[in-house]
Design brief:
Two copies of one chain form a homodimer.
Chain A (H helix, E strand, L loop, with lengths): L2 H6 L4 H8 L9 H12 L7 H14 L13 E4 L13 H16 L9 H6 L2 H5 L3 H12 L4 H12 L17 H12 L3 E9 H5 L2 H5 L6 E12 L5 E11 L5 H9 L6 E4 L5 H8 L6 E6 L25 H9 L3 E4 H4 L8
Parallel strand pairs in A: 1-2, 1-5, 2-3, 5-6, 6-7
Antiparallel strand pairs in A: 3-4
Helix pairs in contact in A: 5-8, 13-14
């Protein structure tokens, strides 16, 4: 190993000199040892350009001798949730939660019983429910996500998420996380990246289970957020009520705006799967130095779902990955992860 | 030392057995050793009830055998900035910044030159400036804190904070931090508390220097926050512009609301010095288990300033600590830190 090689692999000369005296020669192949370790940490990833790009990004940004080195405190990686970390089809999990909550809300507010869209939801008619407009959905979201103390909401979500099951796999939603992405989160954290969720979903919703499911603490979840209102109960004890006031719509341009609001640093790496993540990836990419921009493409109809409409995949409106986004990603050198070819395994239990 | 004692002090029996074989007996007085360590970490604090309460809080919440033990991930401590971590008199540092920025803003927007309140600020007439109304100040804040890309703002603040000096001490503002509070931040972090600033000041402003001055990274600064707007420059490069739209007024009830928005956990310990911190301390105190609520009282006219009007101190409008707040604190068992008697040293350079 000459000095150039050592520098290229980020090894300080003095360290090499003192270490070589103690270590048998075969162990000095540090780069391949590192690569091997990464390989085993990313065991559910097939070898290919996506995996290689990720490993290379981590290598250069964590190697002090590399010009692309990033100090640990600046190692911020942001992940979209729905469709990037877990299954989003046939319906966003939080929307399922809201629909499931309607009977309980109507029980407390009987005046809603005969009113649309609540009447349709109460009828249980799936076909009609699938036709609900965005405005109908918003009304359901408002009724089920606001108006209660934050702790009451947390308790309700916790109870639901521990029992509700996905219609296809008959498994808890929290089991429908992508194994390769869980490995990636761990791998990045092992390399001192601080992992954040930046989701279009409700931040109070995701915070309930983020630690348990992703190893991401609530304070590292940025999401669509409403205001809260401080008040006192009859005993004078203060509490916060969830208000029907939108502070942050954490989709599209809202993602970089939310990142600035709640993190205050530009990410070094960002992961998404739809047009709603476009601005987050653009913003990440616009910073100086090494940046990783990754989009997950749902192209595996058999093991998960197939939708796009990038590369001619059907557009199913949930998690739309347009051809335009695909073209931008290709042009700007973003990494496209094909679930079909880049992932050895998709769901942990399979 | 019997098993009960060991358990009470959170010491695993096996560790004790193996350690006792190696350590001379006098060193086994671990509790007093811990207390001694805390004492040396809080070297600028006089012995007294305030210091004792803080040390005792940390002891019980970090001792696994104690019923008041708090898991590390829940150890959140929030600190007001102005008047709690650094000097806020005679004027909030950020307001000084905004006034100092007026000439540069007027140079770019000449139409403001002959308009109040900008005209008064440009005149440099301190007496007139002191009489500016809240509405005048808001207009100055809007003109100097919004309308520019976030990076431009950061660069401007950085440049200013590295040169601007406090009129009394002729020192950089960043030198006017309270030494006992810097020690306290360190002490809490050494005990795996995550320290946050929760300030009525602008979060983008404080984030520029929080790491360097307090060891608190930008993502752990919650403050008054405006919206940003995502857009592209002429070369197609995305950037965020600071908008004149208030998202969070992080004062009074806004503090617990901001904590919920950006942290999502109720603090275990909260530190403030004025009525603007009241709700943050109430909210902190309303959680179950051990909670620490601390108010700093400015009662040292000689070494710093003397204002209140708690305990008959003059009300100077900046950092008002009312008698009502003092009474609530006393009634609910909050800890009052007297700068005069609890702090051996106030400013690090003195």
């Amino acid at each position: 190993m000459n000095a150039g090689t050592a520098r290229r692999f980020g090894i300080n000369r003095r360290v090499v000199l003192s270490a070589t005296a103690l270590i048998p020669l075969p162990l000095l192949h540090i780069p391949s040892a590192l690569a091997q370790e990464a390989n085993s940490q990313l065991a559910s990833w097939n070898d290919g350009p996506a995996k290689q790009t990720i490993i290379e990004f981590v290598r250069v940004t964590t190697d002090q001798a590399n010009p692309k080195f990033v100090p640990p405190e600046e190692r911020i990686a942001t992940f979209d949730q729905d469709g990037t970390l877990w299954v989003e089809h046939p319906m966003y999990t939080q929307v399922v939660y809201c629909l499931d909550r309607v009977p309980a809300v109507v029980a407390q507010r009987p005046e809603l019983k005969e009113r649309e869209p609540f009447k349709i939801v109460l009828s249980g008619d799936r076909e009609q429910m699938a036709k609900l407009s965005l405005r109908d959905l918003e009304e359901i979201l408002l009724a089920t996500l606001t108006g209660m103390p934050v702790e009451v909401f947390e308790t309700e979500v916790k109870k639901w998420i521990e029992t509700a099951k996905h219609p296809r796999w008959k498994r808890l939603y929290t089991e429908l996380t992508y194994q390769p992405m869980l490995e990636l989160l761990q791998y990045l954290r092992a390399n001192r990246y601080k992992t954040y969720i930046v989701t279009g979903g409700g931040q109070d919703f995701v915070r309930v289970y983020s630690q348990q499911v992703y190893g991401i603490p609530p304070e590292q979840v940025v999401g669509t957020a409403g205001g809260t209102k401080y008040g006192y109960d009859q005993g004078g004890k203060p509490f916060l009520t969830k208000e029907p006031k939108l502070l942050l719509n954490d989709n599209d341009a809202g993602k970089p705006e939310g990142i600035h609001l709640e993190i205050g640093r530009r990410p070094r790496a960002a992961f998404g799967n739809s047009t709603g993540d476009r601005q987050m990836l653009e913003y990440t990419g616009a910073g100086a130095g090494a940046r990783l921009k990754v989009l997950v493409l749902h192209d595996d109809a058999k093991r998960e779902y197939e939708y796009g409409p990038a590369r001619g995949l059907p557009d199913t409106k949930v998690g739309t990955f347009t051809q335009e986004l695909y073209d931008e990603a290709t042009k700007d050198g973003w990494t496209i992860v094909s679930m079909k070819s880049d992932w050895k395994r998709i769901l942990a239990f399979e």
